[in-house]
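hiii so um. not sure if this is the right channel but i have a protein structure encoded as tokens and i wanna go backwards to a sequence. like what aa goes where. can anyone help
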């Protein structure tokens, strides 16, 4: 998956969580349900691939779809989301 492709997936997820005060398990579940329900672009496998690439990316993940969440919080959230999506489906 090209950088622009995985970034598009991640930006869609970040857009969906930008107004959440905390990136807790409720938000992880909501986004996972959205991915599985087709509310985000791509299917579960594409999203997992995008999350894997995002978590290996050394640059900022919050550079296009800005949120008030820190880079560390976003990475932790995406890691938890990846774990949940890996076990569901």
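sure thing!! here u go:
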């Amino acid at each position: 998956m090209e950088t622009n492709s995985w970034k598009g997936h991640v930006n869609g997820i970040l857009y969906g969580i930008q107004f959440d005060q905390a990136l807790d398990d409720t938000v992880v579940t909501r986004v996972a349900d959205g991915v599985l329900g087709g509310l985000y672009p791509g299917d579960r496998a594409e999203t997992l691939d995008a999350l894997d690439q995002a978590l290996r990316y050394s640059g900022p993940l919050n550079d296009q779809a800005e949120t008030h969440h820190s880079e560390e919080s976003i990475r932790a959230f995406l890691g938890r989301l990846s774990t949940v999506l890996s076990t569901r489906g």
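oh and The mean pLDDT is 92.
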